[in-house]
Amino acid sequence: MAEPKIQSLPEEEAIDEIVETVRLAAQGTAPFALVLGSGFSQGLVPVVREIVGEILPLWMKSLKEHQSFETQKEIPHDQRTEIARDFWSEFVKRNASRGLVLPLDSQTALPETYSDAYKAVFTPEYFGAVGEPFQARRFQRALMQLDKPRLNAAHFLLASLIGVQPGKSRGSNSFKFSAAFSRLILTTNFDPFLQTALQAVNRLYFMSDTPELGVGDEIFDDETDAIHLVYLHGTIHRRSQAATDEDIKTLKEKNARTLAPVLERHGVIVLGYSGWDDAVVEALAACDRFDHRLYWCGRESDPLAKGAFGPRVPDILHKPSALYVRTAGAGHFMAELCGQLVNGLPRLLDNPIGQLREMLETIDLKELKNLGTAHPVASNTPQLIDIASNTEAFAQAQELTLQRLREVEQVFLFRGQGVPPPKETETPQPLVATPSEQRDGRVSAAPSVDPKKQIEQLLSSARVAAALGNHAETLKLCKEAFKLAPIEPADMADLLLLQAGAHYFLGDQDEAISNLSQIAKLPGAPVEQVALALNNRGITWGEKGETEKELADYTRVIEQLPGAPVEQVALALNNRGIIWGKKGDTEKALADFTRLIEQLPGAPAEQVAMALGGRGWTNYLRGDYSAFLADTEVAVNKLPSLDSVAFNLGLALLAGGRDAEALQAYRDAGARFPQSIDVNGLADLDEARKKWLGDERAQPVIQLLQSLKK
């Protein structure tokens, strides 16, 4: 009885069937699984024929002669052919005694069967090739050229298709149907190009790339939108890749039984795969039928011809639900399929700006609001306003960038809708260097940019740099912005504040004072920025020992700056009160703290709590321990997060003779603020021991705080 012919289908009709299957599939499902072989990476990784016929012999020559592999490619073609012949002749002779049987073609002097030759050179038992695991890894990674990120058409188009397909509960306007195409990709390749492609379209995936451990149960899970990449022979990232008969046989026995039921429940599309006797072939051979057919795609006109595919592929193609599809290559097939399933062009070609915008919109920066956490300072130390801790810097930068992307996206899409280019008589647009191009010396042709928007962007970037503590970059960005004109007074003040902060934290107090002084006399500067500059200049004067200048700046904010924000006035009152206390003028200190507590409506709760703490501390210095305790208790209740008053509560209780309660207060403070134990706990106890606190009462507290330090 004659053997039945295999069913074949032209590429166009096969694609129509595949598209129809996706159209009819239930919403949220993905009917197809893909099997990808080395042909899918054509142009990126050499195929077996190229490795055997040229690349491997040249690689071995480069190792033997201690030369760069890249230089070997410059050898003339005739010499490369001779090198390959000599290599295979020597390899076969050298390993004949070890059981190697590898017939060489009588005309080419190269192996008759490239797949057998490929597997032989990776076999550790044979000498003279890359059989050792270390050399095998080294060779495979060199083939991948991992230092050169790149994609071919097949990978790009597959990712473009999968990148816009709908999810299980999420639709997609860019995809033509409510079902997805595929969420399961099996490959015998080692290369990382599937990963690179999916990253390029911002598509979530996960990998199973340790086949020696067995394909896991997650291959049965179809409840997630993530793409499952199954590397059946391992990946270049792992210690070993299956390339020998023994390795492939072991993996086949371990994984084929798991793969078969999964493949049966899908339609299967095979691309660029020659069909070695491995786990995929074993699994396909075990399948009685496929839910949505098997489409085996190849370039060969006769799939049954000797050497066209692996020896077991004809049996698979004779299955009732199997079809052979002759294609012009994986890239061509994916182009046709992408055109049938995706609305418009691939996203990276049609609207790359929109893709970047959407990715940025998914980022939540709320956690960075506490990035500028202050270091612990003593309760009698003036507060510096750290411009670098602007809690909104990242959110503002994100929104500004999104706004600019939306604007550019509209221009990009508008121009893409047939807007004619400028006429030859129109004035050509000038060459303008963007800030990033100015930094590295590049200039590109671009339309002139509104200086205000450039300043806005540089200011936003400088805020982010300051928030990250990158003060050198902050100065660099501010310097670039100062070159632009005109600069609005508010923007100028912001830039000077950022520059002053950078100089301050880099230890250059004089430059910081100079910048802050410019703001103080800048015409048109918003009053809130002037107040902030004066407060920070006052603190900087104080650190330089210029106490009178420090007091003058605080006084100007409090008395001589109409419209100053209440929070800045409150800060100035607190800071001035602290300085009066350090000068020994406790009456003036108490007056400033009390004015803030009782006579400044709208003062921030934090500043009021600090003023209560300051007034309590001043009363402590005056020996009024009951007033110290009363204000400190109110401060703790008003702002439990204020570390200085939490420790002061313990001291106040000790001063009132309530040692057990004091010990508990110190325990609570030390547990909550271990980083402040030295500054706000032990230091004050040491001072108290010099005046009124005996060692017998102090030691239990000191021992407790020492035990809580981290």
Write the layout of secondary structure elements.
Layout: E1 8-10, H1 11-24, E2 32-36, H2 48-64, H3 69-72, H4 77-95, H5 114-121, H6 133-144, H7 153-164, E3 182-187, H8 193-200, E4 205-208, E5 227-231, H9 245-264, E6 267-271, H10 279-286, E7 294-298, H11 313-317, E8 322-326, H12 330-341, H13 347-350, H14 352-361, H15 393-415, E9 431-432, H16 435-440, E10 444-445, H17 451-467, H18 471-482, H19 489-505, H20 509-520, H21 527-543, H22 547-559, H23 566-582, H24 586-599, H25 605-621, H26 625-638, H27 643-655, H28 659-672, H29 677-691, H30 695-708
Parallel strand pairs: 1-8, 2-3, 2-6, 3-5, 4-5, 6-7, 7-8
Antiparallel strand pairs: 9-10
Number of domains: 3
Level of helix content?
40-55%
Please tell me how large the radius of gyration is: 37 Å
Q: What is the terminal-to-terminal distance?
A: 85 Å
**What CATH architecture label of the largest domain applies?**
3-Layer(aba) Sandwich
Provide a brief overview of the structure.
The protein is mostly helical. The chain has helices spanning 11-24, 48-64, 69-72, 77-95, 114-121, 133-144, 153-164, 193-200, 245-264, 279-286, 313-317, 330-341, 347-350, 352-361, 393-415, 435-440, 451-467, 471-482, 489-505, 509-520, 527-543, 547-559, 566-582, 586-599, 605-621, 625-638, 643-655, 659-672, 677-691, 695-708; strands at residues 8-10, 32-36, 182-187, 205-208, 227-231, 267-271, 294-298, 322-326, 431-432, 444-445.
